[in-house]
Amino acid sequence: MSTASTVDSTVEGESDGGSALSDALVVTWRNLKRIPRIPELAIFAILQSVMFVLLFAFVFGGAIPLPGGGSYREFLMPGIFAQTLAFAAATTAIGMVDDMARGLIDRFRSLPMSRSAFLTGRTVSDVVYNLGILIVLMLSGLAVGWRVHEGVARFLAGVGLALLFAYAMSWVGVWLGLLVPTVEVGQQVAFTAIFPLTFLSNAFVPLQTLPGWLQPVADWNPVSAITAAMRELWGNPNPFATNSFPSEHPIILTLIWTALFIAVFAPLGVRRYRATSR
Amino acid sequence: MSSAARSSAPAIVAEGLSKIYKSRSGEVRALDGLDLEVEEGTVLALLGPNGAGKTTTVRILATLLRPDAGRATVLGLDVVTDAQRLRRRIGLSGQYAAVDENLTGRENLWMFGRLYQIASPTARARADELLDQFDLSEAGDRPAKTYSGGMRRRLDLASALIGHPRLLFLDEPTTGLDPRSRIGMWDVIRGLVRQGTTLLLTTQYLEEADALANTIAVVDAGKIIARGTADELKSTVGGERVEVVVHDPAQLGAALRVVSDCCLAEAAVDEHTRRLTAPAAGGATQLVNVIRALDEAGIAIDDVGLRRPTLDDVFLSLTGHAAEQPDAIAATPVAAGRTA
Ligand SMILES: Nc1ncnc2c1ncn2[C@@H]1O[C@H](COP(=O)(O)OP(=O)(O)O)[C@@H](O)[C@H]1O
Ligand SMILES: [Mg+2]
């Protein structure tokens, strides 16, 4: 008599699990449909982004001198983008818990669809959502004096890197969302984890201004990496703290971090999704 | 009803299913060696109170949960090792209507159809067909969040049917519905059964199991404690019950003797509500006898009547203890159940 514990999840045979791509597209479609159906969500997300840019630009705009000069607002904008995109993890986690609470995850799991498609669909639709938010942030940034100086190709490379970062953060959110019991807890956990991540970075202040012992932490922080990468690609002020690897190769470090996040959290998330039993 | 000619294996076979939930507050043995068999083309009702293990059983059979011990095959496929192939052949409508509130009814059905691996045009046609069948055509283009509880339930059931499943699981399909929607749902379910779908449904209401199922399996504490047709179960309970509410608590003892004598069976007493219940095999005649005997004994009563046996009565006679029934009308909010 075989018991469940002797059977590995891989036995479930992905081959008979429908088309991963078309299933993921259907789930993406479903998640994106939600945006026009609850316009309040999008409206407030947009207002919040605009408000954020304006507050930072006008409250701190003149207060923080940059080592080596340059416009603080130009320095700041990639930081705000990075912070907002780091919260992709929270967006995704909340979406997951919400589907769980409504019993929808059970329904999806009872369907003969690809096991990973539900999660891929979730992370892809969240990237589309975050692209929308990024565009709003950029337009607001342009309005307060932020500029891109290095041409279209490097601009697009920066956008691509930013979205890759958001995508990786979404996979962290998938895993988190399957771990927490309620939307409220998910929100708390995500915010508690992400706020320090974004503030212990170069997003809002140059690394040099942080206490010495914090500098290496902030230096290797993935949020610092993506922020510095955007600054480098777009020709925004990017004062280096050290001659460390992170400071000199923010683009490579961002790629490493995102690959690492996806490589770790995607399998963890899929495993948890298969086994989830709430 | 069922095609007797078919001598195939049973549609569902479960042997010794066990499931223990571990949580911070300790372990809960939800299933404790549950055995089950359902013949193809028949309807089996899992009847049991809240917490008996009905949902756990359904979730294991529908491949959502792995048993800790025991095995089960559905339509000849092992629920653990052949889960993905099995999912193509079954439909599940869970205890809480799980439809996407932000999508319209039509969009929900199309989406579930696509994920059932049905081609898009076919899924669209099937969605129209189901909306029609479930009386949702008019509401088909409205987001599901505008639907009433009964409409949501019907949409949920329609979603489970999108892939023409040979076997359907319905977990408490009418809990939380008002009486009218409940009867409507019964009609829908009967229609499905007429088309030959094998059905396993769970319910807390004997009346519902009676109305819909060929066979009833009574679950208590993760085990099947009785199995039979509705009539067989009712005969163990003794058909209708006579129920008496005594006016004066001091007369409860006297009333107990009178009613027990009259009904040739020990009456059950609820001191709190001053209520006596006893089997009334003789129906209305017996009721008259009870009233007359109480009157002759000078026992004042507040209320008296005949009623059909309930899950409580079945439980009382099978286990000697009452089922821990939740409030029958307790609302079951769509979203709340999962996190409890
Ligand atoms: N996810 C879970 N974690 C812990 N205990 C659970 C979980 N799900 C169900 N239980 C417990 O298992 C028992 C059986 O639950 P369930 O199968 O939902 O019963 P029913 O559907 O008959 O009401 C109950 O005691 C319930 O509290
Ligand atoms: Mg249940």
Judged by helices, strands and strand pairing, the structural class of chain B is alpha/beta
CATH superfamily heading of the largest domain in chain B: P-loop containing nucleotide triphosphate hydrolases
Oligomer: heterodimer
Strand content of chain B: 25-35%
In whole angstroms, how far apart are the ends of chain B?
Answer: 39 Å
Q: SSE string of chain A, helix = H, strand = E?
A: HHHHHHHHHHHH
List keywords for this structure.
heterodimer; A: 278 residues; 12 helices; 0% strand; disordered N terminus; B: 340 residues; alpha/beta; Rossmann fold; Alpha-Beta Plaits; 2 domains; 6-stranded mixed sheet; 4-stranded antiparallel sheet; elongated; disordered C terminus; binds adenosine-5'-diphosphate
SSE topology:
The complex is a heterodimer of chains A (about 280) and B (about 350).
Chain A: H1 20-37, H2 39-60, H3 72-86, H4 88-101, H5 104-109, H6 117-143, H7 152-177, H8 183-199, H9 215-220, H10 222-234, H11 245-248, H12 250-275
Chain B: E1 12-23, E2 26-38, E3 43-47, H1 54-61, E4 69-74, E5 77-78, H2 83-87, E6 90-93, H3 105-115, H4 120-133, H5 149-160, E7 167-171, H6 179-194, E8 198-203, H7 206-212, E9 215-220, E10 223-228, H8 230-237, E11 241-246, H9 252-263, E12 268-270, E13 275-279, H10 283-296, E14 301-307, H11 311-319
Parallel strand pairs in B: 3-8, 3-9, 6-7, 7-8
Antiparallel strand pairs in B: 1-2, 1-4, 4-5, 9-10, 11-13, 11-14, 12-13
Bound molecules: adenosine-5'-diphosphate and magnesium ion.
